[in-house]
Amino acid sequence: MSIDPHVFVIFGATGDLTRRKLIPALYHLMQSRDIAERCHVIGAARSDWSDDDFRSVAKQALRDDGFEEDVVQNWCDLRLLYQSLGDDGTDFGALRQRIEEVEDAFDLPGNRAFYLSLPPHAYGSTIEQLGEHDLSESDGWTRVVIEKPFGRDLESAEELNETVHTAFDEEQVYRIDHYLGKETVQNLLAFRFANAMFESLWNRDRIKRIEITVAEDLGVGGRAGYYDRSGHVRDMLQNHLTQLLSLIAMEPPASMDAEAIRQEKVKALRAVVPPTPEDVVFGQYASGDVDGETVPGYREESDVPDDSDTETFVALHLQIANWRWRGVPFYLRSGKRLPVKRTQIAVVFQRAPVALFQPGGEPCIPDNADCTAEPNVLLITLQPNEGFDLRFEVKSPGTSENGMRLESQRLSFSYRDAFGPIPDAYETLLRDVITGDQTLFVRSDEVETSWRLYTPLLDADIPVHSYPAGRWGPEAAFDLLPRWINGELRHDTDE
Ligand code: BG6
């Protein structure tokens, strides 16, 4: 893979994402691929920082990440620059001049990436400014990277797409959803399309239901200012969960080419029946115990209004109206302050049509109340403890008065045991930006299709039920799919 020499501009360079994710990812990428001399980073923000201010923040971030002092020092001093955009953040003339100076000094061919690590309301104006200052094209390639959330609803996403397209062509646009950079999420494609065994079962004839869980044990932390205006639908459902849904549900692409894959993802989303308020449960965490510690409720977090009814939990039932999935329910749930951090997809297969091995010896028909036959379940764990478990029934050794006794066991695969540490999602995504691979980025029609599904829910008056921190959401969510949450099933994430 060739990496062109380029300038990498980070808007919002004084912010948390730059320090926590972008600088370590860029550094790691440069180091492991020995391409340090090809990437020149310019941090840009309103603050009146010097190059050295930016470098010392970056150095600290890298030290915190355990990188070696002298190499870090070298890289930061040689490759990092800072450009203030002035008090009102509009001095794009100065930024342009700085970029050109760097390109002249290092004889660079004019390849530029602009990363918008900004509050969402600043995306539109920043893109307009890039266009007005002739920064949307150059002698080399120019790419713009836009963080999620892309819009607040369908209308604002369409408007933002329009603004983006006045300055950039879609081939230049990289809409980030960091879940797509996770190795295990990408592996969903390999798992499905390189293993004929599973793909031939991947349909309504063999699958009873699919459950997608993205659980976090943390609360809203210091991000309430953003989160309280967004809520969980915008923060997690519209993007991360929907990406997982489309990768699980899509048809095989014609090739591994970015357009072929993105086309199939959009097609799957278009077949999703828009959920109604009856298909949805919202929740908000109250004070409770997580990991043996009592934590405050959402309304007691700093910067959250006392009467906020922002949802911190969503459970949702979806149907996909196409030949593969008609009739198979998809259940999505996600929330903050749940018992654990875990992202998991459970594919629950149909049971055997007749259960022969019953305790009394009499066969019975699964789905009868007393019939204890268990279905096969494929559990795909995306984080942490990345891997798969396939649950199946085996005869437990020995005999019993009641005949043969069955027990559920697991075949397990652990990603880390097989491959060791997994690269951070941002490293993968930044590499793809600088090599020009759009496969793991969200296309304009994809983001709009997703908003089309959820915008009616945001406009509806859906009650927000309280749940104690440390539980799997409110009682009402248990009613949506009782066996899902109450711990009866072995594959249940309560374990
Ligand atoms: C972000 C959300 O996109 O994803 C956060 O804004 C959330 O609220 C985070 O905590 C979860 O990401 P991960 O990679 O830790 O699962």
Write up what this structure looks like.
By secondary structure, this protein is of the alpha/beta class. The chain is 36% helix and 21% strand. The strands form three sheets. The protein has a nine-stranded mixed beta sheet with strand order 16-15-14-13-7-12-11-8-17. The chain has a six-stranded parallel beta sheet with strand order 3-2-1-4-5-6. Helix 2 (51-64) packs antiparallel against helix 3. The longest helix is centred in the middle third of the chain and has 26 residues, at 224-249. It starts with 5 loop residues before the first strand and ends in a 10-residue tail after the last helix. The model is unreliable at 485-495 (pLDDT under 50). Bound molecules: 6-O-phosphono-beta-D-glucopyranose (BG6). Residues 216, 235 line the site of 6-O-phosphono-beta-D-glucopyranose.
Question: What are the salient characteristics of this protein?
Answer:
single chain; 495 residues; alpha/beta; nine-stranded mixed sheet; six-stranded parallel sheet; 15 helices; 36% helix; 21% strand; binds 6-O-phosphono-beta-D-glucopyranose
Summarize the structure.
The chain contains 15 helices and 17 strands. The protein has helices spanning 16-33, 51-64, 69-79, 92-105, 123-132, 154-167, 183-193, 196-199, 224-249, 258-270, 415-419, 425-435, 444-459, 475-480, 482-485; strands at 6-11, 39-45, 80-84, 112-116, 142-146, 173-175, 207-215, 280-286, 288-290, 293-295, 313-318, 330-335, 342-349, 377-383, 387-395, 406-414, 464-468. It starts with 5 loop residues before the first strand and ends in a 10-residue tail after the last helix.
